[in-house]
Amino acid sequence: MGSPPNAVGPVSDGIMDPLSTLAHDATQNPSALLEGLKKALANPYDKKTCPNGVINLGTAESHLMADVLLEKLNSPDIRQVTPAMLRYGTMYGSHQLRQAVANLINKHFRPVKAITPENITAHAGCGAAINNIAQALTNPGEGVLVPTPYYGGFDFDLRMYAQAKIVPVNTFSASHFMVTVPELEEAYQAAVSEGITVRVLLLTNPSNPSGRTQPADDVRAALEWAKSKKLQAVVDEIYALSTFSDDPVPFTSAYALANLPDPQNTHLLYGMSKDFCINGVRMGFVISYNKELLESLHMFAIFTCIHLWRRIVESSRNSTRRLRPS
């Protein structure tokens, strides 16, 4: 006997499954990164108390700045809670928070067209930002081109709610995993031949996991190619201020490119986890010139909102000279 028209899940032995298809997909296809982190947290290595514990090499956290961060985060300026913080606020980030982020982006990313608070939405971490922008730009089953090797969390971030399909773009160690137009075209055509509608190109610059920065001309070429295919381009720049000092290729934000190929359809991602070493303070941002996209993200952000952390950004904005010279 099949499921009745209004059944939530499949029927087994006359009992309707209480879980949705989405819930089953989440439990049957867990994130490998989250599973690894769960094991590491359950038995962390300690030289004295747990010498046989797990040494976690799979999570991008920096503990070297902990003393500096704790001093800053425990300072009276940041710890001050106001009455406004105890009430409902703008779900996609208060104006003050988005202004602080705009100031940071304008100072260190040097966009050709200045970023304002109206160009920014705030989310509970960069993973939530990726999830929300995927919901806004793709329909279930549609493709997102992602150059390899890529951050393992993309599998979960793009698939869990948006149900987008990752289309890997093969790159090679001989060229330091730099993305080229022929590689993008090959992956795109392969996806089309499989009946996949490709909607988005997702770049990461600087790269995770290689740490290499993509040359500005290569970023431009990729964005010009995306425009020719009428794709949305999303550039994850969460490691923008954490480049190697001896890297021969300086970081250039996509928004710092003169004559950006398709400004309305090119969007940035940023967050506080990496450059500011505060992974546990879930704070990520979508930055865009596309008003229609931003308005949709205002609604998605209702479920991923943040509110209390404005002063961290304001304080950190004045300290980024430690990370990147002016």
**Total count of strands:** 9
Largest sheet: 7 strands, mixed
- Give the overall form: globular
Stretches where pLDDT is under 50 for at least 5 consecutive residues are: 1-7, 318-326
Q: How are the strands of the biggest sheet laid out side by side? A: 3-9-8-7-6-4-5
Strand content: 5-15%
List the total number of helices.
11
How helical, in percent, are the residues? 25-40%
Structural class: alpha/beta
Q: What would you note in describing this structure?
A:
This protein is an alpha/beta fold and 326 residues long. The protein contains 11 helices and 9 strands. The chain has helices at residues 21-28, 32-42, 66-73, 76-79, 95-108, 126-137, 153-159, 181-193, 216-228, 291-300, 310-317; strands spanning 11-12, 15-16, 120-123, 143-147, 165-169, 198-204, 232-236, 266-271, 284-287. It has a 7-stranded mixed beta sheet, with helices on both faces. The chain has a two-stranded antiparallel ribbon with strand order 1-2. α5 runs parallel beside α11 and α6 crosses α7. The protein is globular.
Task: Give the key terms.
about 325 residues; alpha/beta; 7-stranded mixed sheet; about 10% strand; globular
Question: Secondary-structure map with pairings?
Answer:
Layout: E1 11-12, E2 15-16, H1 21-28, H2 32-42, H3 66-73, H4 76-79, H5 95-108, E3 120-123, H6 126-137, E4 143-147, H7 153-159, E5 165-169, H8 181-193, E6 198-204, H9 216-228, E7 232-236, E8 266-271, E9 284-287, H10 291-300, H11 310-317
Parallel strand pairs: 4-5, 4-6, 6-7, 7-8
Antiparallel strand pairs: 1-2, 3-9, 8-9
